[in-house]
Amino acid sequence: MSKNVKTLRFILLLSVIIGCSHDTPSSYPSLVIYEGQKYMGHDNIGVSAYPDKIKIGSIQSQVRPGEWEHEELSSNELKQGTIYWLDEDLLGAKWNEQELKIYKKLK
């Protein structure tokens, strides 16, 4: 077998191993816990879409993906950030000065 074929097989095998890794943050949905409920992250939206948002707190801790404790205002994606109540089933996390990341309550 030629050296090029062996190298190509090694690269393909390595790509499969890396692609199937389950410990990467992208393998898990973005979650926030508030009042014992899990909220799953969705799209970002402009801050002006929710002018009546109510600040409920800030992320207290970032947890490892897949290792959920029910710690209030914890997230597996957000290290820090202000959390807003948007409506009965929606939270918003300050993503930057112009955007909120929307989190929908899991039922």
Task: Kindly describe this structure.
By secondary structure, the chain is an alpha+beta fold. 16% of the residues lie in helices and 38% in strands. The protein is built from 1 helix and 8 strands. It has one helix at residues 3-19, and strands spanning 31-34, 37-46, 54-58, 61-62, 74-75, 82-87, 90-94, 99-105. It has a 6-stranded antiparallel sheet with strand order 1-2-8-7-6-3, with no helix packed on it. The chain has a two-stranded parallel ribbon with strand order 4-5. It is elongated, with a radius of gyration of 19 Å. The termini are far apart.
Q: Can you give the helix content as a percent range?
A: 10-25%
Could you say which structural class the secondary elements and strand pairing correspond to?
alpha+beta
Number of E-type strands: 8
Beta content comes to 35-45%
Kindly, what is the distance between the CA atoms of the first and last residues, rounded to a whole number of angstroms?
Answer: 55 Å
Taken from the alpha-carbon principal axes, the silhouette is elongated
What average pLDDT do the residues reach? 82
Number of helices: 1
Low-confidence stretches: 20-25
Order of adjacent strands in the largest pleated sheet = 1-2-8-7-6-3
Rounded to an integer in angstroms, the radius of gyration calculated over CA atoms is 19 Å
Structure keywords:
107 residues, alpha+beta, six-stranded antiparallel beta sheet, two-stranded parallel ribbon, 1 helix, 38% strand, elongated
